[in-house]
């Protein structure tokens, strides 16, 4: 009886297809927030084992390391957790979550004080309002709209919702020690100063606190 011919369609994925499988899995895990959870880790371990034991259609082991591939994908896409990332030429992020909380809380607390001073000193301050709690700072300027500033721990970012320029996400810039919007390189405090000064037709300067 003749042996069945080898069917390439049934062969185990090659190195490159293995890379695509892994990166696809990581993207899916990120989308569902399962990276780092027991369920997500179990899936990743299973695929890692399968890839390490697989062979190509032409023979020989496939040298695929899931850990390095995951780290490459996460770092490239700015989701490296405690690992410092690179965005538009400057270093962003913190080495640990505790440092992020300390620095971002300091920013929000300083802005809260500055906003309260603005409300107290402005002639129309009676129609303005400031609220701050649970990492969310809100400045209601009445007819001029409402600003919301809050921290996003998973991304190590500070988010701004502006009635003038819309939503923006700010990354920490290790060089300037400030928070910068990567699409136009404008710092959070610079944008707030310019927009609120224009809206209220009076000068208001907000500065990033010293660490």
Write the layout of secondary structure elements.
Elements: H1 15-31, H2 38-53, H3 66-76, E1 85-87, E2 90-92, H4 97-121, E3 129-133, E4 136-140, E5 146-152, E6 157-162, E7 166-173, E8 178-181, E9 186-187, H5 188-200
Antiparallel strand pairs: 1-2, 3-4, 4-5, 5-6, 6-7, 7-8, 8-9
Helix pairs in contact: 1-2, 1-3
Could you please describe the fold and organization of this structure?
- This protein is α+β, with helices and mostly antiparallel strands and 211 residues long.
- The chain is 39% helix and 20% strand.
- The longest helix is centred in the middle third of the chain and has 25 residues.
- It starts with 14 loop residues before the first helix and ends in an 11-residue tail after the last helix.
Mean pLDDT: 74
Low-confidence stretches: 8-17, 29-41, 50-84
Describe the biggest sheet? 7 strands, antiparallel
Q: Quote the distance from N terminus to C terminus.
A: 78 Å
Q: Structural class, judged by helices and strands? A: alpha+beta
Count of discrete alpha- or pi-helical segments spanning 4 or more residues? 5
If you compute it from the alpha carbons, what radius of gyration comes out, rounded to the nearest whole angstrom? 24 Å
- The strand count comes to 9
Portion of residues within helices: 25-40%
The shape, in one word, is globular
Instruction: Report the sheet-strand fraction.
Output: 15-25%
Spatial strand sequence of the major β-sheet:
3-4-5-6-7-8-9
**What order do the SSEs take from the amino end to the carboxyl end, as H and E?**
HHHEEHEEEEEEEH
């Amino acid at each position: 009886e003749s042996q069945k011919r080898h069917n390439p369609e049934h062969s185990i994925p090659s190195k490159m297809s293995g890379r695509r499988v892994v990166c696809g899995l990581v993207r899916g895990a990120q989308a569902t927030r399962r990276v780092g959870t027991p369920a997500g880790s179990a899936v990743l371990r299973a695929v890692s084992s399968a890839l390490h034991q697989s062979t190509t259609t032409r023979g020989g082991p496939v040298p695929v390391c899931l850990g390095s591939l995951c780290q490459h994908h996460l770092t490239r896409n700015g989701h490296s957790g405690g690992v410092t990332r690179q965005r538009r030429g400057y270093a962003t992020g913190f080495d640990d979550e505790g440092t992020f909380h300390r620095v971002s809380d300091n920013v929000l607390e300083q802005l809260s004080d500055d906003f309260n001073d603005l409300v107290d000193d402005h002639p129309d301050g009676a129609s303005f309002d400031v609220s701050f709690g649970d990492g969310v700072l809100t400045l209601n300027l009445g007819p001029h709209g409402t600003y919301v500033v809050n921290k996003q721990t998973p991304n190590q970012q500070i988010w701004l919702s502006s009635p003038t320029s819309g939503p923006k996400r700010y990354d920490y810039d290790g060089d300037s020690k400030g928070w910068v919007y990567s699409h136009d390189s404008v710092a959070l405090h610079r944008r707030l100063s310019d927009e609120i000064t224009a809206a209220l037709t009076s000068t208001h300067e907000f500065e990033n606190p010293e660490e």
